[in-house]
Amino acid sequence: MRPVHAERHLIDRIGWLRAAVLGANDGLVSTASLIVGVAASAAGTGDVLVAGCAGLVAGAMSMAAGEYVSVSSQADTEQADLARERRELADDPAAETEELARIYVDRGLDHALAVQVAEQLMAKDALGAHARDELGLSDFTTARPVQAALTSAATFSAGAALPLLVAVVSPANLAVYTVSGASLVFLAVLGALGARAGGAAVPKATARVAFWGALAMAVTAGIGSLVGKAV
Questions:
Q1: Burial 50-79 (b: 16+ CB within 10 A, else e)
Q2: CA 78, CA 71: separation in Å to the nearest integer?
Q3: pLDDT value at position 231?
Q4: Distance, CA of 193 to CA of 187 (rounded, Å)
Q5: 40 vs 172: CA distance, rounded Å
Q6: Where, by residue number, does the polypeptide cross the bilayer (predicted)?
Q7: Looking at residue 10, what is its pLDDT?
């Protein structure tokens, strides 16, 4: 007998990868844009660093809270659907067996075999079978609010720290250019790493991340310059 080949699929990473990429990208773009905007207003180095630090802390907390609330809502919906399935299985198991069998018929099994498969799966774990095949829930996609919140806060802070460090070592009159240039490099690297981790095309992901980051910094720098001249 040939040994069973254990496969690892990239979908296994979807739970944390989305939050990690979103957090790091948001930290980089928002903090770099904030620093560039304040620097473009002709503010001093101290003001630029205060704005950058405030943006890092506020953004990390906002990301954590936002991810926790949104993913908790998803988890609540999943639990409500599971509770409904649990009640339906208790009230009418025969109808639930037929419902599951129809799903397998739609996937290509004949009705007799579909019923047999449904009965055997439900005999082992009825709720699990319906959660997976009717609701589309799995261990890989199940909502995990705490994991999402911590991942987003940590990666946002890591992303935001990069342009902030550049601002620390950069002269105030060059901060707009040094922070912008370094941040574009960081964004390109982030896009490439995210693409590699998710199995996507690296050039496309890198260009997409760098383009939107450049646009955000350009708009913020323009507004900062106008406000600086006005006040």
A1: ebbeebbeebbeebbeebbeebbeeeeebe
A2: 10
A3: 56
A4: 10
A5: 10
A6: 148-168, 174-197, 209-228
A7: 45
Distance CA 27, CA 33 (A): 10
Alpha helices in the chain (DSSP H): 14-40, 45-91, 93-106, 111-133, 145-169, 175-198, 202-230
CA separation for the pair 174, 179 (Å, rounded): 8
Would you state the structure tokens that stand for residue 167, as one six-digit string?
């601002």
Q: What is the pLDDT of residue 199?
A: 67
| Alpha carbons 62 and 60: distance in angstroms, whole number | 5
> 51 with 60: CB under 8 angstroms?
no
Residue 167 three-state SS: helix
> Rounded CA gap, 51 and 45, in Å?
10
Mean pLDDT for each consecutive 10-residue tract of the chain (231 residues)?
A: 49 57 83 87 84 92 89 87 90 90 91 92 89 78 78 89 91 85 87 72 81 83 73 56
Amino acid identity, residue 26? D
188-197: b (≥16 Cβ within 10 Å) or e: bebbbbbbee
**Residue 171 carries which side chain, given as an amino acid letter?**
P
